[in-house]
Hints:
mainly beta
Amino acid sequence: LQDKIEIGERLQVTPAVRFLKTSDVRKEGVGQAYYLSKGDVTDATNASASVWTGSLAAQYLLADGFSVYGSWVQVHQPFKARDYMQTNGKDKKPAKLGDDEGTIWTVGLKKSWGDATTFGLNYAYTDMKNAVARYSIKVPGEKDFANRYVNAKQTKKAINVHLNHRLNDNWKIGLSYTYMYDKWAAKSGEEFNPELNFVNGNVNTMINKFRPKNLYTANLGYESGPFYADLFVNWYTGNNTTAFTARRFLVMDLNVNYDVSDELTAYLQLTNLTNEAWQTTYTSYLGIGAWPQPGRAV
């Protein structure tokens, strides 16, 4: 439920609330069916949840074609079914896990020069005060570090810049750049294993190396009468060669369309034009190149 409020001629404010209800997780076996509940599985959470979250967005017009904006959003990711089953230690005690909770802040600006050129810049900061993770920790009262399912803290920073420009009646171009960085931390009462590294499981060195660091995109479009086409270029850079087969990947897609009539359009799509061998993710279990993206397709 949201309301868009105009304050004067320059300020626009949008408050909103969201209600979320998740039902019990039900486990069924041969000859039996029962609900997982607080007493059955864990003493950290209930089997069902009802929660209200809020958000607030605002946009202010500084001058014609130039505005700034910001937003605040509450995040609540309900307990997943598998989280009920996670256990810790040799005695298989249920992990005391909670729902993922946090907030996302975004600030940005938009600028346009006539109808031909637009520019945008935004920064987003995600602060998860509770995020479920599996990590090597030392719990008070225990001697050694051991892998445990825990409630951790997570922060994520992201920046995006984009520029769109119409060259003339037929040609237009769009450019953008995206960067994201994650960091995990232990909550009070727990200690992350400081000796872990990229090879043997430090989440803060792994998560930012298990995906391309930078993404540059370009979109070149052409339109003339019933014919229009778009060339999309994605350039992934900053790849860590411990996790990827190359430091960078250049992937191009082409879409061509022709309006035969008002009711009929013919089109041709070509993806990964150069048949680039590329990946966007990695798992140590399967190794480098085990999750390839699709090759050339028509």
